[in-house]
Amino acid sequence: MQTVKNHLLDVGCSEKTAEDVDRLCAGGKLDDALHQMKVIRCNLMEDLHEKQKKLDCLDCLIRQTEKEIKTIIER
């Protein structure tokens, strides 16, 4: 069975962050651990949104380039 620390490491948390949250859980400070996990989740969502913006921009560039190629071919 994986520990809280292992799960947090799997999602990309630093060793220190994973240990801190794991320690909170082990010490019975579940409210504090939950808060920290929600902060981590929020940060991951921000990263996800930033990457989505980059993908959207790249998709737009790809569509524009495909249109240019099609226009050249049709000439």
The rough form would be described as rod-shaped
Query: How many strands?
Result: 0
Instruction: Provide the β-strand percentage band.
Output: under 5%
Overall average pLDDT: 95
Helix share of residues?
over 70%
List low-pLDDT spans.
none
Q: Total domains, how many? A: 1
What is the rounded Rg? Answer: 21 Å
What is the tally of helical segments?
A: 3
Distance between the termini: 64 Å
Structural class: mainly alpha
Largest sheet: none
Order of helices and strands: HHH
Notes on the structure:
It is a single chain. By secondary structure, the chain is mainly α. The chain has one domain (4-74). Helix content is 85%, strand content 0%. It contains three helices and no strands. Helix 1 runs antiparallel to helix 2 (15-26) and helix 2 packs antiparallel against helix 3 (30-74). The radius of gyration is 21 Å and the shape is rod-shaped. The termini are far apart.
Task: Provide tags for this entry.
3 helices, 75 residues, 85% helix, mainly alpha
Short description:
The chain is mainly alpha-helical.
SSE blueprint:
Layout: H1 4-10, H2 15-26, H3 30-74
Helix pairs in contact: 1-2, 2-3
